[in-house]
Amino acid sequence: MGLAGPQVTPASMQPRPFQRVLVANRGEIAARVIRGCHERGLEAVAVYSEADAGALHTRLADAAYAIGPAPSAESYLRSDVILDVARRAGCDAIHPGYGFLSENEGFARAVEEAGLVWIGPPPESIASMGSKTAARRLMRDAGVPVVPGTVDPVSDGEEAQRIIADIGLPVMLKAAAGGGGKGMRAVERTEDVANALMAAQSEARKSFGDDSVYIEKLVVAPRHIEIQVLADAHGTVVHLFERDCSIQRRHQKVVEEAPSPVLPEATRQAMCKAAVDAARAVDYVGAGTVEFLYDQQADSFYFLEMNTRLQVEHPITEMITGVDLVHAQLRVAAGEPLWFDQASLAVTGHAIECRIYAEDASANFRPSPGPLHGYREPTGAWVRVDSGVLEGTQVPIHYDPMIAKLVVWGADRDQAIARCRRALQDFHIVGVPTSIPFFLALFDDDAFCSGRYDTGFITPEWLEEQLGAGEPPDEAMIAAAIARFEAQRGTAHKASDSAGDRGWKRVHQWRTMQGVWR
Fold this sequence. Notes:
3 domains
């Protein structure tokens, strides 16, 4: 027996076609989204601060608008200015990229209230996962495993002492509104609790305007595993398998690979199911990532957080699944159903991403922005570079100093590592120190190559052992390096002249050369 009366399609499922997208971001992710828009036949509008005038993303876009001075608080975080540009530019949708306003519930609501399409999850989903403590409570209620600890912020040292007495040391103090390693302190001794709590609260207040801190049991030597999820407005939620993001410095990812080299298949399936359950619990729509801590010894995992946006490391998932996540975001935001189901997804090969930063790894990854006097990206089979820079431009001091993302694919992990090593040796950057010597040292480390690592793998001692030796170059060495680079500029690809000695052994000696290497 059929239903009486006309059938009404929920508003969230109505088609919402759009043609002109404002990309509210900068750098490589802005360039990535702009290219994705053009591939879908859409127009793209860029915004830029004074520091980014003439940047790559402004040249790729169909139009570009200035939005203020260099500091992000006066430009890329000015939601009112960005919405005004969208109106003046005739845009009917906004893509936030990652960072900046991408997980700002208020901005997402303002976009929708302005009659524009928000290319991201519903504001309610962002709000549900915006507070780490609220997210922990929600996940616990949804049956997703969470790390033992508090679901409410702690108020003072005495309360923290009582809680820690129950769950036991070591613990991690974490900002409730945090991310990117900010507002986090590990505590291994009772006498350190009060000072660590004050330090975490202070950093959280400065970074997020919220000093709420909660307590989690510290999982010793964990892996950081995340699951990519994708959902449409028609009730379909799928996962696109996992990424292993355990190579970190200061709690921030620098190398990611997919799939994880250590995850047992049964655990992988359970973790992927938990991620889909987490997305369903917040009525998620769009691309998102559910992050877990994996206890290798106990073969158990715990919910860490959900990132309600595109991740920096999304390309490795694209490489192993063949799914273009930016295209997926655009199609889902337009109201289209997913064009595939879970059964049609499979992992093919292995992918690795290296975040190429303007920083000196031998000096504890000290940011080193400056001019790019020379810049040439590696090429070759199954090598992808997502960058937002051009030769002759600046790596600004005002933002994250990432220059590019090197992404490679191999038929297996060994081939991916070998290909990544070769591509790193072929990457030419002159003008700033980069993290390339660090990656080359990492890919020459037997423990990493065998997959035996965790989130604490990169230590000051490891850095000193791998990168601390070598004499600073003299002026003649610098001149020779510049001459070699100039001679190779614009020529066809040629093998690294240092391949015979594995490259990095010479590279690390030149780490103080302001980016002149090889």
